User: Fold LLM class flavin-dependent oxidoreductase from Iamia majanohamensis.
Amino acid sequence: MSGGADVRPSLLLANLGGIDEVLALARVAEEAGATRAWLTETNGPDALVAAAALASRTTLEVGTAVVSAATRTPPVLAMAAADLAHLSGRPVHLGLGAGGQVVVEAWHGLDLAGSVARIDDALTIVRQALDGGRTDHVGSQWRSRGFRLSSPPATPVRLYVGGMGPRMLELAAARADGLITSWMGVEGVAARAAALHAAAAAAGRAPGSVRLLARAYVAVTDDPAPVREAVRAELVEYLVSPPYGRAFAALGWGDEVDGAEGAFARGDREAATASVSDALLDDMLIAGPAGTCRRRLAELRAAGADEVLVQPVPHARAGDPSGTVRACFGG
Assistant:
């Protein structure tokens, strides 16, 4: 493992409802001993607005895991990151990803093509701005010249790439402070850690300079069956999404991907859900008593994750976010 990360996991706030729920769960985590919270973004809350609220109202370090590099320009991202650093007085962690096809193309009316180059351009421009200089970059997806922050951050802003494919891994290894992965069990994390470290070495990066962050979907419960069935249905949405489907197939779940895609194309949602095998569910979901969940989180660390991001299964999927947070961070 690299980076000298703390053993204690971090909190990932995702799919919880409104900003009030996000803030409330962050306070529960803070009281339980968490030191860092990450936010993701789909259709609300706005991750950077929520991060600003956490930065000004809690002692938590804040980060995004992730926001799309397509829906905000790099200068806007740089301004937001600098403001978060000023509000908190602590390091800030800015994770950038492609954004899903529905989010980028259907909702925002933008083009998802060129995502790797877009994130690469954003990393360059954001870093130029955060370092206090004027931007000077013309890329294939983003260009910026002459922008300069009025007040650069005094605390570090670390930049991460979020993604599951090999090109995102290579980009993170060459250009970022770390890679954020999702939907991976122990074997997937171990393989990703080895690939990331090899790619970083090939790019001339110092050992330990590129960190692997693994998202973990967690529900602490004495009755995991309802959670498992709710998450089984949720996983279908990822299996039939082409980028995620390719990533799942590369991890050895090709039969599940083919089954879900075929059933979904026929309009048979029940069969698509049934294609999510128990083995896949066991790998992607951590659900059970507190001791079991803590053990499996530790296994992800041992497999090569420098930091594990605990994403509590929400109430909408039969989870107990507050109970999960207390069990994972209060032990």
About this structure: The longest strand covers residues 211-220.
